[in-house]
Amino acid sequence: IGYGTLHPKTAGGQIFCVFFALFGIPLNIVFLHRVGKMLSLLCKKLGKFLHEKGMRKKKIKFLTLLFFLATGILVFLCLPSVFFQITEGWSYSEGIYFAFITLSTIGFGDYVVGKQPDRNYFSYYRTLVAIWILFGLAWIALLFNL
Question: Domain Potassium channel, which positions (predicted)?
C-alpha cells in the first residue's frame, strides 16, 4: 500500500519484492479493469433504464455519474470512516482523511490500520481493509471511465 511500516529487510526479500511487483502490479491493473468493466455494465443498465423512461442522453450521463459518485462516496469514504472511528478510535475526520489518502494512493503512513498495540482487532480486519482498498480503487477507475 505504500505506508512503509512493513518492508523487506534482507537483500533477498528486496529482490523478491521487485520481481513480485513486476507481476503483481500488472495483475492488479487487470483486476481493477475487470471490476471496473463489471461496474460499467451497471452504468449501462441504469442508462438504458433511464433512456426507456424518455430521458435525453446528456441527462442520463449526468445522472449516472452523479449516482455512482454519491454511492461511492457513501460506500468508500463515509461508511468506512465510521468503521475506522469505531475500530481504530480515530475521529470521523481522521477516518475520512485516511480513506481519501488511501484510495488516492498517496499513503503517507501517518495513519495505519490494525497497528495500535492497545486495541483488539478481529482476525480478518486487515484483510477486510485490503478488500475495501481494491474495490475502492476500482470505483475510482470507474469514475475516470465515466
Answer: 1-39, 65-145
Count of CB atoms situated within 10 Å of the CB of 137? 21
Q: Which pLDDT score is estimated for 107?
A: 78
Could you state, in order of their start, the residue ranges of all structural domains in the chain? 11-144
Query: 3-state SS of the chain: helix, strand, coil percent to 5?
Result: 75, 0, 25
Pick the CATH number of 11-144 from 1.10.287.70, 3.30.420.10, 3.90.1150.10, 1.20.1070.10: 1.10.287.70
Amino acid at 21: A
What residues have CB less than 8 Å from 132, skipping those under 6 apart?
A: 76, 80
Q: Which residues fall within 8 angstroms of residue 90, CB to CB, at 6 or more apart? A: 84, 98, 111
Q: 88: Cβ–Cβ under 8 A, 6 or more apart, which residues?
A: 95, 111, 113, 116, 119
Alpha-carbon span 145 to 10, nearest angstrom: 40
pLDDT at 80: 96
pLDDT score of 1 = 46
Which ranges of the chain have pLDDT less than 70? Answer: 1-5
pLDDT of residue 4: 61
